Amino acid sequence: MSNIDTLFFQPAVGNQYGIVSLGFLSLSGYLRKNGIDSRIVVLVDKDMEDTVEKKICQFRPKIVCISFHWYIHAYEIVKIAGVVKKTDPNIKVVIGGHSSTYFDKQILDFTSSIDLIIKGDGEKPLLEYIISQNPQKVENISFKKNGEFVSKPVTYHQATLENLTGAHENMNEMIDEWDKYIKTKRVRTSAPIASSTIVEEVETRPSEFYLYVGKGCGFNCCFCGSSKTGNSRIFNRGVSVYRPVEDVVKDAVLLKNNGVDSLFIDFGPFSDESYFLKLFDKLSNLDLNVVYLPWNLPSNDIISKLSTSFSDFEIQISPDSGSDRLRKDLCHRGFHREFYSNDLLKKSIDKIAEVGSSRGSQLFLWFMCGLPFESEEDYLKTLKLSVSMKKNYPQLFNSAQDQLNCVPLRLTPGSPIDLWPDKFNMRKLRSSFKDYYEYCKDLISGKIEHPLGLERNDLSEAEVVKRAVHYKENILNA
Ligand code: SF4
Predict the structure, then answer these.
(1) Using an 8 Å Cβ cutoff, are 36 and 401 in contact?
(2) With a 6 A CB cut-off, is 417 part of the ligand 1 pocket?
(3) Alpha-carbon torsion (56, 60, 61, 62), positive or negative
(4) Would the pTM count as exceeding 0.90?
């Protein structure tokens, strides 16, 4: 087997959406274990054309991989692929991730700059392609042969995440310009809406990095493309898998040795917290901070464990609605994570305040407006709950207007709402890859025709945006 340099380009939109994807970390680690050298180049805050040209000249790769997991990169991936081909037409351009799997044929019809799309889990197919450079020998892919679209079914999926890694003893050899990447503060998430009011904008912490814990989700939130529905229909994998605790701890040690102060953990598809209790215990002697996003309501045990295992912690909880009624209804229909009442939510927050206030620990709460079946009354309950949070726990919200968020519901490809809009009384305003491409192109000019990409039959897109703006103003003034 010969070594072939492979470059991964992580797209961004200006200084946003440029966090390196977990998929790239896993792929890079997997290739390295199999003797293939690679480098991840993050294009956030950079002159894309200039950087892509320079990095190709520097590394001389035979294969370039571009992440198209998040639909927000629809415009950028086409542009990046074009620059790669212009710089060296012999380089094979491969894309992968959730959105590329979903739109495989449409993307290959749209641009000739992309040679191959890897669908579903990419580790083994990418390795096979790098070695053989023969699509016929590779599973899970789509490509064009003599102008004809060829789609091979998604037959490979990872049954286990053992022996993988999302870190390296020298992170510079995994992520290009690592020191700059890790030290630069950037926007982690934001909501592009056609309004001068920013309804969501969260920055990364200094020296924060993803800790790769697992993949997949067993929940089925109606708005989520990575839900059980989205994953099983697109990735042919409807279950979630954890990495062994010991492997994750090894990664955390490597990250700490490379200057990481804060671990970012956004995973938790089970109600059983025993995995995290064990993991946090093992991480406790590393003297690190953590940003933890549990996907359910964290128990008192896990909150206590956070406080004893980390120097400082930030916790982000997503009740999605402040209305018990609406959450119960969505759960009952099978389109939300586990139900918990507002009373239980308040008890958890009491616990966070009890163990975290004295050390300045912070809380983020994420709500949405425009959810299916949300009434005006439900929305007002969300607002009322949020205002009470700001007033009752001022110590947990250094910047309440940034930490209490009510994001307008947006369309995500492959989500239950995208697949079955009628079931949710919704109407899609975007469907094709070209629609997403145009939307992402408009993000740059700020003239976005359909910021959300969907609306309810009984609640227009503009009215949902109005709710989000109303929420932000009320939180600011509360
Ligand atoms: S918990 Fe819900 S929002 Fe989070 S990944 Fe799973 S389905 Fe998506």
Answers:
(1) no
(2) no
(3) positive
(4) yes
Distance 238 CA to ligand 1 centre (A): 12
What domains can be seen in the chain, in order of their start residue? Answer: 6-120+122-151 (3.40.50.280), 185-477 (3.80.30.20)
Q: For residue 367, report the phi and psi dihedrals to the nearest 5 degrees.
A: -120, 170
Residues near 386 by beta carbon (within 8 Å), at least 6 away in sequence: 322, 365, 367, 404, 406, 471, 475
C-alpha distances (whole Å) from 404 to each of 36, 195, 468, 475 are 44, 19, 11, 8
In the structure encoding, which two tokens stand for residue 182, read together?
């890790």
How would you write the pLDDT of the chain (478 residues) with one tens digit per residue? 345 689 999 998 877 788 898 899 999 999 999 999 999 999 988 899 999 999 999 999 999 999 999 899 999 999 999 999 999 999 999 999 999 999 999 999 999 999 999 999 999 999 999 999 999 999 999 999 999 999 999 999 888 888 889 999 999 999 999 999 998 877 766 555 555 555 566 778 889 999 999 988 889 999 999 888 888 877 666 678 899 999 999 999 999 999 999 999 999 877 789 999 999 999 999 999 999 999 999 999 999 999 999 999 999 999 999 999 999 999 999 999 999 999 999 999 999 999 998 888 999 999 999 999 999 999 999 999 999 999 999 999 999 988 999 999 999 999 999 999 999 999 999 999 999 999 999 887 778 889 899 999 999 999 999 999 999 999 999 9
Ligand 1 pocket check for 407: Cβ under 6 Å: no
Total Cβ atoms within 10 A of residue 5:
15
User: Strand 426-428 vs strand 454-456: parallel, antiparallel, or unpaired?
Assistant: antiparallel
| Ligand 1 lined by 295 (C-beta under 6 Å) | yes
- Residue 404: CB atoms within 10 Å: 26
Q: CB of 216 within 8 A of CB of 269?
A: yes
Pairing mode, strands 116-118 and 141-145: antiparallel
Q: Tell the residue nearest (CA) to atom 2 of ligand 1.
A: 221
CA of 223 to the centre of ligand 1 (A): 8
**Tally of CB atoms within 10 A around 383:** 20
Radius of gyration of the chain (CA): 22
Residue 289 · residue 256 · CB < 8 Å:
no
Q: What is the residue-wise DSSP string for 5-43?
A: -EEEEE--BTTBS-SPPHHHHHHHHHHHHTT--EEEEE-
How far is it, in rounded angstroms, from Cα 273 to Cα 457? 39
Which atom from ligand 1 is nearest to the alpha carbon of 223? 3
Q: Measured from the CB, is residue 224 less than 6 Å from ligand 1?
A: yes
